[in-house]
Amino acid sequence: MPWRELTVTDQREEFVKLALAPGANMSELCRRFGIVRSNGNKWRARYLKEGRAGLADRSRVPHRSPTRTAVAVEAEVLRIRAESNNAWGGRKIAHVMEREGARSVPSIGTITAILKRHGKLEQRASEHPGPYQRFERARPNELWQMDFKGDFALSRGRCHPLTVIDDHSRYALCAQACGNERDVPTRERLMAVFRRYGLPDVMLMDNGAPWGDSGGGRFTAFSVWLLQLGIRVTHGRPYHPQTQGKDERLHRTMKAEIALDRLTDLQDCQRAFDQWRHVYNHRRPHQAIGMATPGDRYLPSDRPFPEVLPPVAYDCGDLVRKADQEGDIRFKGRRIRLGKPFRGQIIALRPTAEDGVFSIHFCTHQIGQIDLRPVGDTACGFVDIAPTVDPTGEASDAMPTSPQAQQQQTLDNRI
Q1: Fold assignment, 143-297
Q2: Contact, 77 vs 86, CB < 8 A?
Q3: How many CA within 13 A on the CB side of residue 257?
Q4: Nearest to 199 by CA among 143, 241, 152, 151
Q5: From its phi and psi, is residue 351 left (phi > 0), alpha (psi between -120 and 50) or beta?
Q6: Which of the four pLDDT bands, split at 50, 70 and 90, describes residue 6?
Q7: Contact criterion met (CB below 8 Å) for 238 and 401
Q8: Beta strands in 122-166 (DSSP E)
Q9: Engineering a disulfide at 39: which of 35, 92, 236, 378 sits with its beta carbon 3.0 to 4.6 angstroms away?
Q10: Treating both helix axes as pointing N-terminal to C-terminal, what angle do 71-83 and 108-117 enclose, rounded to 10 degrees?
Q11: From CA 260, how far away is CA 272, in angstroms rounded?
Q12: What are phi and psi for residue 152, nearest 5 degrees?
C-alpha cells in the first residue's frame, strides 16, 4: 500500500507520544520538532484530556467578545433595514434607533459592518449622479414640485404614481396611485391635497401633460385652473429633469423602498404608497436636511382651498377684455392670441413704463406682455414671460420644445 503523507495532527500525535514516554527529554523533543516549549506542553495537555481530537486546529475566534454587538441590537438593526425594503444604510438606521429610544445604538460604522456581515449591502456604482447645485426655498409651501413617476405594469393594468413634494421640508404631500395622467382625475387628487395641506405660492412642474403642452403652448387648462386658485405656475427647462430634482429624488426613494414588483392593482399600490409616505415623512431621516425628518420641518399652508373658484377681479384702471372661444382678445384693433385654455376668461391689460408696451394679466398673475410699437413690418408682438425655475432657483423664460412649436410661436408673435 502507498505511504500516507503525514498531516499536522499526525506529527503532533507522534510528538506527544514521544513526550509521554518514560524518561523523555521535553526540551530536546521540542527542539527537534521545531516548536517552543509552551506549545509542546499545550499539545501534551490536550492529548491527555481529549485524545487525538484535541490535536486538531481550533477556531481562533474568542469565546467571549466584549466589543461584539449584542444579538438583540444586531437583530434590531436588521429589522429596521428590512422594513426599509433593504434600502437604508448605517446613518439612517442609527438615527431611527436613537429617535425610537433604543437602549444601545451602535456607531454608524458598526451598523454598516453588521449589514455587510449579513450580506445586506451591495455596491451601487451609479447611485449618485455626480456633483450638483442645490437650492431650497426658505419656508414651507413657497414652492411645491409635482410630477408623475414613470408608470409600471401591474397584474391588472398600469400604475401612474403622482407625487407632490414641498421644496423646503421635502415633505411628501402626495403619493397617489393613478390609472392615467389625464386632467380631471389629476385635479381631483390634487384637490384632496389642497384640502388637507392648503395652497402653495408656486408649483413647479415639467412640460408634460396635463400641466404642460408638449406642442409648445404656454398654458393648459390645468395650469389656468391653478392660476385661478392663486398659485403661480412654473415649468422646468425642457430636457432638464434636475430642475425638479427633489421630486426626482423622491421617485428614486420610492423605487428603492417599495417592492413595486409585488403590487397587483391600484388599491394594492395605494396601500403601499400610504404606508411608505408615512415612514418617509415621519420616520426616515433625510440627509439633505441634517438627518431630520420632513415632518420635523413642514407646516401646512395658511391659505385654505376654496371649494368655489374666487371671482376674477381687477383694479379699476385696468383695461379688461374677455377671451373668445379661440382664446384670443382684441385690443386697439389687434388680435392677441393667448391660447384656448383662456377661452371665456376675463383678461386685464396694464400700461407699462414703456410707451406702447402693455402687460397682460390673468387673476393675480402676469402671463405676458404686448408690444404695440411699430417695428418693420410687424405691427405688434406677444412675448411670453411665464417663468420657469432652474436648479439655482432663478427664473428663466419658457421656450417651445419642438421645431413645430417654435414655428407656431413665430406665427403667433406676428399679429
Answers
A1: Nucleotidyltransferase; domain 5 (3.30.420)
A2: no
A3: 22
A4: 143
A5: beta
A6: low
A7: yes
A8: 143-148, 152-153, 158-166
A9: 35
A10: 80
A11: 9
A12: -145, 155
Instruction: Give the SS3 label for residue 397.
Output: strand
Query: Tens digits of per-residue pLDDT, 49-107?
Result: 888 888 888 776 666 655 555 777 777 777 877 776 666 777 777 777 777 777 777 77
C-alpha 213/C-alpha 58 separation (Å) is 72
Domain ranges of the chain: 8-55, 71-117, 143-297, 319-413
- Between CA 259 and CA 154 the distance in angstroms is 12
C-alpha cell, 320: 379688461
Grid cell for residue 379: 405691427
| In the block, residue with C-alpha cell 377661452 | 343
Q: What is the pTM of this model?
A: 0.62
- Kindly provide the b/e burial profile for residues 46-82, where b requires at least 16 CB atoms within 10 angstroms of the residue's own CB: bbeeeeeebbeeeeeeeeeeeeebeeebbebbbebbe
Three-state DSSP at 384 gives coil
Eight-class DSSP state of 306:
P
